Amino acid sequence: MSTARFLAFEGGEGAGKSTQARMLAAALAARGIASVVTREPGGTPGAEAIRALLLGTDGEGWNPRAEALLFAAARSDHVERLIRPALAQGQWVICDRFVDSSRAYQGGAGGLSDADVLALHRVGSEGLLPDLTLLIEVPPHVAAARTAARDGDATDRIGGRDAAYHARVAASFARLAEEEPQRFARIDGDGEAAVVHDRIMAALARFGVAP
Ligand code: TYD
């Protein structure tokens, strides 16, 4: 049996991560590889409860530090109760967002230092990192059209931040990918879902997965 791998999808709003996560799980299954698809914030009952606190639009909202602590707490529960047990059982884990979202949103765009975000991750999740982070990149106008089609006017607390914030998020993701080229695969997310899926399968060749 091949080693179970931990794969994360990252990117801005409307990049197509959730669609690609589902397509990837189906492609792995067709190759005899069992996987679980999960998401952040969330993935376990406790983390989903924190998700509602983070993304709901009631109340005053959170400052970037409180936000980073809540994401780290949700991630801690998710890692301990779902991600590590699945990997230990030999299942691949496909996670829609992981710690690099905290580094890009609360860090680069929110103003926390990368060292602080990583310190919270070390405490919360013993610094667990994906074997591969698939960063799906799309031009801003494509992302805007997709989120408008999906969400209409109903956006969450973080998704609804202004274009300058989301531009900082995109720039932060790009910088992280440049700094860690082994762990990141940058995927051009512009195009039909099936075409993007093929690009993702090509990036998994390093794990011996047939394209
Ligand atoms: P969600 O609807 O799940 O994501 P998407 O917009 O990709 O479909 O919303 C998650 C939001 O939370 C999204 O705006 C990104 C943000 N986020 C952070 O700010 N930090 C984090 O660590 C994570 C996991 C998500």
Structure description:
This protein has 211 residues and is of the alpha/beta class. It has one domain: Rossmann fold. The protein is built from eight helices and five strands, in the order βαβααβααβααβα. Strands 2-3-1-4-5 form a five-stranded parallel β-sheet, with helices on both faces. The protein is globular and about 50 Å long. The two termini are 18 Å apart. The relative contact order is 0.20. The model has no long low-confidence stretch (mean pLDDT 95). Thymidine-5'-diphosphate binds next to helix 4.
What are the main properties of this structure?
211 residues; alpha/beta; Rossmann fold; 5 strands; globular; binds thymidine-5'-diphosphate
Brief rundown of the structure:
The protein is an alpha/beta fold and 211 residues long.
